[in-house]
Each structure stands twice: as C-alpha cells, then as structure tokens.
Amino acid sequence: MGGWHTQHLLNSDVFELAGIYDIKEERRALAQSRGIHAYATREELLADPRIELVTVATPNDSHEEIAVAALLAGKNVISEKPVTLSMDSLERMISVSKQCGRVFTVHQNRRFDVDYLAMKKIHDSGEIGEIINIESRIHGSRGIPSDWRGEKAHGGGMLYDWGIHLIDQALMVLGWDVKSVNCRCDHITNNEVDDGFQLDIVMQSGARAYVEVGTYNFIAMPRFYMRGKKGTAMITDWREEAQIVRCKHWHESEVVPVETAAGLTKTMAPRDSITVDTYTIPRPQSDVHDYYRNIAATLDGKATQLVTHDQMRTDLRVILCALRSAETGETVMF
Hints:
Layout: H1 2-10, H2 25-33, H3 42-47, E1 53-56, H4 63-72, E2 76-79, H5 87-100, E3 104-106, H6 114-125, E4 131-139, H7 158-174, E5 178-186, E6 196-203, E7 208-214, E8 224-228, E9 231-235, E10 242-247, E11 258-260, E12 263-265, E13 276-281, H8 290-299, H9 309-328, E14 332-333
Parallel strand pairs: 1-2, 2-3, 4-7
Antiparallel strand pairs: 4-8, 5-6, 5-14, 6-7, 8-9, 9-10, 10-13, 11-12
Helix pairs in contact: 4-5, 5-9, 6-7, 7-9
C-alpha cells in the first residue's frame, strides 16, 4: 500500500510528494532509482518543515507508535487500515491528535468501490423499500498471504485485512447504531490467525448485515445481496452491474402452483413480469483520489474529514467484538 499511495500522490492534483521513508534500505534505494526522494531516517522526515501530511503504510501493530511520533512533530496523519489493534491504542492516537490540533484519520479506500457505491445508492434511493438485510462477501482460493498478515503479533488475519473494509461498507449503508455481533472464524490454512470468517451484525433498528470473507472458496458466492420490503438487489461480481427485482404487485391469491420433483408449491412459485420489474443500474462513477482531495479540503478548513473518529471507533470495536465472539462462541452485545 505504500507503493499504491506513492503512485497516487505522484499524480495528485492536491498534494505534492515530498518523499518516502522505509526501514528497508533496498526500498529506499528503489525509490531513489525512480526519482523519488527517500529520507535516510524517520527523524529526518519528521523534521522536514515542508511536510504537512504523513501517510502510515506499515504492518498493523506499528501504526500507533509512528502516527503519534508524526502528530507530535506537528504533522497531520493518515493511518492505513485497520487504524490500530485495540480501543485503548485508538483513544491514545485520537487524544494526541486533538492535543496537537492536527487531523488524524484512517484510509478507507474501499468507500470508493463501485459495487459498494451501487448498493448504497439503491439503499438511499428507497427503490426497494426499507432494507431488511445486506450480505457482503469476498471469496478467494489462495489462502492468507504468507507474510506478516498471517502473524497474530502484527495484527494479521482476514478480519483486520478485508473485514475492516466490508464492515465499514455495511455500516455506511445501514448506519452506525450496532446492537450485537456474532462471528465464526476459519482456520483452514492458518492456525494462528483467521483465514476467513462469517460475521453477523444486528443493528438497533433490526436491520442485519452478514459479512463473509473466505480464502478457500473455489466457487464464489455473490459479492452483494440486499433485501428490502419492496424488492431485492444483487451484484454477482464486483465487475458487474447491480441487478434489481422490484415487486409491484403482491397477487398472493392468484399464484399458480408449480410442480417440483416431490410435489406442488405455491410458496416458491416464480414471479413474472406482471408482478415484478427486473432491471440493472449502471455502475457509479468513482475516483479513489477523492479521499486525498477531501483531506486537502479539510486541511484548508473547507471540509470535514471523510472518515470520522467515531466511525473509526465503531469499525474497530466491531472487529474486537467479532474476535471475542469467535473465541467464546457467543453473541457479543455492542
């Protein structure tokens, strides 16, 4: 992600890249070979008066120490997700940012994913009515990455890796008033951290989110599935448009039974064009660099940060409750 941020900042219309720092000499040398300034030490970087903003893209367990050092040096800070690994750690980071009068936030780039934006648009438009539940899945078949993401000490595991994105997206759709969390974790290719999970989130409103990440799935289930009181929306794959089936007539009394292998059923009889409208919606337009444009506007006093401290708190608390639920086998009240 450090390289990802670097490329976006090199082409940014709101920020100028002053340089990078990495503890690995070969990474600093690679940056220099590409015409990017590499600071010899972190202290040199933090002492540079030109720098207004520091982005932290390191393993999860080191975010707090680096972010606090940058804040105390008078820099504004973006931390890669997950922001940190405990609520106490997060509160310390927020407290220092307030003491220093600096912006502190987390990078949630997947708020710009067009599949998520399509589902949020459908929810917000009300075209399938009040939302009953949303299901969000990411399935792969290559196991957990064989680097620090597979190690507990560094905050590895799929809940912290992909879960933080899907949880944030679900709460952006349904709201932030979480009531309870229940989670089961997979340990198929890794016994130290979760290499997949199945997470139920119940909201105070009664709406529900089901979030699932799998790294040993050779057939993927739909990316998104959302039920409303007036219809259903689905995205089979993140590259596809959203499909909507909206109910326009209930016609319960006129259902013709269908014959299955073992008998008749009216309950599961298919719908027709008389009772439902079936259509797709175009993929929304999105530019992920709008995240940095928002930060620039925030620093100029023209906007507020896209990812708030309270949202950071709720996202992290859901993960911590999910881990406790998986360990105890019980639902955890939020």
